[in-house]
Amino acid sequence: MKLINRSLINRRPDSYPRSLWRGVLLGLWLALLTVPAVAQRVVQSINSNWLFRKDDAGLTPAQAAAAKGWEAISLPHTWNAADVLDDEPGYYRGVGWYKKTLYVPAAWQQRRVYLYFEGANQEAEVYVNGQLAGRHAGGYTAFRVPLSGLLKFNGSAPAATEVLVRLTNRHNPDIPPLSADFTFYGGIYRDVYLEAAAPVHFDLDNYASNGTFVTTPAVSAEAADVVVAGALTNESGTARKVTVLTRLLDRDGRTVAKQQTALTLKAGEKRTFRQPLPRLRQPQLWSPDAPYLYRAVSQVLEGKQAPPLDEVTNQVGLRWYKFDAAQGFFLNGKHLKLIGTNRHQDYPGLGNALPNALHERDVQLLKQLGGNFLRVSHYPQDPAVLQACDRLGILASVEIPIVNAITDSKGFFANCLTMQTEMIRQGYNHPSVIIWAYMNEVLLRLPAGIKRDNEPGKVYLRRVNRLAQELDSLTRREDPARYTMIVNHGDFELYQLAGLPAIAQLVGWNLYQGWYSGDLEGFPKFLDRHRRELPTKPLLVTEYGADSDVRLHSFQPQRFDKTSEYANRYHQFYLKAMLERPFVAGSTVWNLAEFNSETRQEAVPHINNKSLLTGDRQPKDAYLFYQAHLVKSPFLKIGSRSWTLRAGQAVGPDSLFCRQPVEVYTNQPAVRLLLNGRDLGTRPAEFGVARFTVPFGAGLNQLRAQAQGQAMEDFTDIEFQLLPTRLDSPQLPFTELNVSLGDARYFTDDKLHQVWVPEQAYTPGSWGYVGGQAYKQPGDRLPYGSDRDVLGTSYDALYETQRLVLSQFRLDVPDGEYEVVLHFAELEAAPQGEQLVYNLSGNSNATGATALGQARSFSVLVNALPVLPELSTATYLRPLQAASFTVHASAREHQGIVVEFTPGQGQPFLNGIQVKRL
Ligand code: GCB
């Protein structure tokens, strides 16, 4: 059998006559039927049928095993999927127990049996049949736990094996991340496998790697060298003479190179091996356009035995690359601007416990964007992510989660070094990986009492520098073929002061000029400064982004208003600045999709929506804008896809339309737009965007865009709620109006099918406020309103703005009966204890705290009736609590509706008003 196998390896299968082939297949089949009990590794997922319970009583393993109150779950699982979304600050960070009975086949007595956890956040203790089998610290890397000595076999019956896992996601100052703008969900949130290997096997005790490491020391278009190295372990009681055979297979399964190494292992011995494969001529290269993968199949063979004792397959991509400080990035000798996104690993409703299909889908969405680069931020993610990158041709940077700060402790340093080693060894064989990184904005949160220029500050910066040096050296030692990177926030001086840019080979900057601070122009200035002052350091823009809540829109977008329109403007500006600068080697948008950050407040509490996709992965306009630049085939999409329900006021009393802008994204030179079949003209595309002003009529508006010179079209339907200019208009009878006070934005509520329009001053015949000013939280960040979490509502964005000191809100509606809903939220409130510090202006101190709450009272009258007498901070106006009241109003004798505010103490205010004709 062995002989036949060997000869098969050497020759192309199609060069055999048919009859011989049949014989070969029959031989193989017979060999499979006689598989000896101790051959080849078996790996099975064990995600089903687990039990879970929280533990706030500090149970011992024995108590936990006997305790009641278990919930049946399956993996992946997190215990924080729901509590990170509620109105109560914080989420459960404590102990959870998992329990499962495994049935280990009697035949596995001869094998080495392991549990393999792809990841569990964050400190795990694994007990098997009541005994501690292994521990692991860190929530983002895999670990393997040996079981063999703990299994209890009983004759030929499978060994029923109790697995109990104690897991905690409590804060541990020795384990990164210490703090971050994402949620530290607890749970066994990735897959778990049971593995059974023959006693002689590839090393399974090497930081949960697969025990083999593939390098490609020399690759060119003409030739490629591939080396497979690793270690073999003999866990049997006798010396063994084995061969490691590696075959490199092309995509069609043909062997294109092979190498074998004979090894003799004493009982209990572990031995390393290194196998340079014969040089490959005219290799197929791996690139984003053609991600060609070979497979290196390494087997442990012994004597005449077949199949092998062990086998490991690694995907191999042949490519070479370099970063150049002036010219950027080169792949396979060609310049390639790296463009893509960052990614977090969560999904609405699931927390971080995602099936592999969702991890893969995100990489596909990046590919469909036209991206070629993924920053796997801020921690190593599910193996499915890098597998998808390999397959789809996405280059990747991976990092460990040292975020915001370090702890100057032995434990912290040791855990960082271990995590870095795990990350590298576990991800080593992915051709997509080009960068190993290890710090994200590590100086954003200087610990209490520490300033950049005081004595403790100097000591702290030295310690951060020390940790960076240790991690950098470790990384270069572990994997000299990849680049190292540290990612900084936009405080150039501080990182220079700490000496960090000098340490890693690449510098990543997270830049938010025109968002957290300053204006857009600050961005190119910063890039040029790097080029001037760090001329030998390749640069990547590792983060940039602006919040965009798909419900919010504005035609005068402003920094920090969270509208899609500001985000569009921001991305259009940033991309242009980066494309104009060849020294910007790469960039990754923050972020591919919206993600949970429990401590974050703002328009959608707990959600960071600086992203190209919504949480459920629907494209925002900015996604289409990037497609227009990155997709290589002809591309044309009408924007506004997530804004298909709009409202606005008719342009004049006798008009039946309202003009609003629409952007069309394309890589074609010009676009024609039609509205309900009527030609609106052709506009040139400037930097991927053709801009139109569309006269929307009431009801259905069908937009059709055509690329000039291409048989390409795109369609979108927009439903428009046309508001009359004069509320007594006979052509456009008044039905309802929803106004967000103190606000310059439109807010679409798809579920209730309502659109809220921005406030306006009252003019006779129409509607609006009389007097007052829009509320503005102290500080320079928000143009208006507050970013505090308003409790008791999911319409935070509406309650976060208000008009102060108004005397009236008037609507000159026709005589009739109306329902009026008045919305209030007291925005003056004590500062938050723990302020989110994502003020990346370079100032590490928290900002945004509002003034202390003050007593306030006022009364509201509707058409002279005191419907809300004495609204006050002592009654309904509790700080940051939504309160709404529905009242009835009769409009008589052409007086319309007059809502009046009479102050008692302090300034009256109104956050929102809805008026509906009954
Ligand atoms: C950053 C951080 C990232 C945050 C992001 C933001 O610089 O690296 O973790 O989520 O800014 O949105 O503030």
Task: Note the overall shape.
Answer: globular
**Tally of helical runs:** 12
Output mean pLDDT. Answer: 93
Number of strand elements: 55
- Distinct bound molecules: (2S,3S,4S,5R)-3,4,5-trihydroxy-6-oxo-oxane-2-carboxylic acid
Q: Proportion of β residues?
A: 35-45%
For CATH, the homologous superfamily of the largest domain is named as: Glycosidases
Largest sheet: 8 strands, parallel, barrel
Examine the coordinates and then state which fold CATH places here, giving the name of the CATH topology of the largest domain: TIM Barrel
Structural class: alpha+beta
| Integer-rounded radius of gyration | 32 Å
Helix content percent band = 10-25%
CATH architecture of the largest domain: Alpha-Beta Barrel
Could you tell me how far the N terminus lies from the C terminus, measured between alpha carbons in angstroms?
87 Å
- Unreliable stretches, pLDDT < 50, 5 or more residues? 1-21, 23-37, 834-852
| CATH C-level category of the largest domain | Alpha Beta
Total domain modules: 6
Strand order of the largest sheet: 23-24-25-26-27-28-29-31
GO molecular function: hydrolase activity, hydrolyzing O-glycosyl compounds
Domain Glycosyl hydrolases family 2 sugar binding: 84-194
Domain DUF4982: 661-710
Protein name: Beta-galactosidase
